[in-house]
Write a structure and sequence with these properties.
alpha+beta
């Protein structure tokens, strides 16, 4: 697998979410989300499933767990397209 962005850009994302208030602070807007959404997580993600469940609860949207790792969307893009069609297109 090859990154589509510069490695420095990827590193910046990880650095900004790693500390106290990083990723958790990014959730603060979820309660005011006004778009249809579904939180999707891979069954083999290295992150706790409770994080994804909490995001879905805060955003008042469904949570779906699918076979795959944390980057399942990049692992199987055809399946990712089908998931978007299934969960977000009326």
């Amino acid at each position: 697998m090859e990154l589509a962005c510069r490695p420095e850009a990827e590193a910046t994302i990880f650095e900004s979410t790693a500390g106290d208030g990083g990723a958790r602070d990014a959730w603060s807007h979820l309660a005011s989300l006004r778009a249809d959404a579904t939180v999707v997580a891979g069954t083999h993600s290295n992150l706790p499933v409770e994080w994804f469940e909490a995001q879905a609860e805060r955003a008042r949207c469904p949570f779906v767990q699918v076979e795959g790792g944390h980057f399942f969307i990049q692992e199987d893009t055809d399946r990712a397209v089908k998931l978007v069609e299934q969960h977000l297109i009326p």
